[in-house]
UniProtKB/TrEMBL annotation:
This is Hydrolase. SUPFAM superfamilies: HAD-like. It holds the Pfam family Hydrolase. It comes from Flavisolibacter tropicus.
Length: 211
């Protein structure tokens, strides 16, 4: 997906809102497979068993339907463990890292574009999302957050794009949606949004500068 696949003649002056994913764009994915494998190794548990249980519950956890405590009870603490929930929670949160270049550049760039508002459009569980927003001070960039945990909806459900447009008070053609996963970008395009497939910071910065 590249700039040639955006709406014809898109210019920065036409955009009122940028919907920007968090994981894979600004930060690492908060609790992806690599992180879960690291957790299994760190705490000495069977990854295959833990991951099967993760797959059973993670969707509803990401939709805000169960808490982190319930998630941990489901994947690990259904039996006694030689470590605490707090230790596991701390390790889980520590898996979130800042990706290079994007956040500080976007904050500076946004300051030069007073007409633009930024909203997240992301799938994340509530406790992890709140940690990431607070720890990395994401309110420096975002004017609001459209997150699966607050809506009971997950991308690529078409309804989450409709809700995001309503929250921001804009029409699809007035938006730019940036995501690192092509399936999500395609879903955004099908919802009528202008889209950009983020693959690395250099390409995305160059694209935004070209508008």
């Amino acid at each position: 997906m590249n700039s040639e696949q955006l709406a014809n003649g898109l210019r920065l002056r036409d955009i009122k809102v940028i919907f920007l994913d968090i994981g894979g764009v600004l930060l690492t994915n908060g609790w992806g497979r690599v992180s879960r494998q690291s957790a299994a190794e760190e705490f000495g548990v069977d990854f295959s068993v833990m991951d099967k249980r993760h797959e059973l519950i993670f969707n509803i956890y990401e939709e805000g339907r169960v808490s982190l405590d319930v998630y941990m009870d489901t994947i690990l603490f259904y039996e006694p463990r030689p470590f605490t929930k707090e230790a596991f929670r701390t390790f889980m949160f520590q898996q979130s890292k800042l990706l290079p270049n994007m956040l500080d550049w976007l904050i500076a760039w946004k300051a030069q574009q007073p007409q633009l508002r930024f909203f997240s459009l992301n799938n994340e569980p509530r406790e992890l999302h709140q940690h990431r927003v607070d720890h990395f001070e994401l309110r420096r960039l975002y004017d609001g957050f459209v997150c699966s945990c607050d809506l009971g909806l997950r991308k690529p459900d078409p309804q989450i794009f409709a809700v995001a447009l309503g929250v921001a008070g804009v029409q699809p053609h007035e938006c730019l949606y940036i995501d690192d996963r092509e399936v999500m970008v395609t879903a955004g395009k099908m919802a009528g949004l202008n889209v950009w497939h983020h693959q690395n910071s250099e390409a995305t910065i160059s694209f935004l500068q070209s508008l």
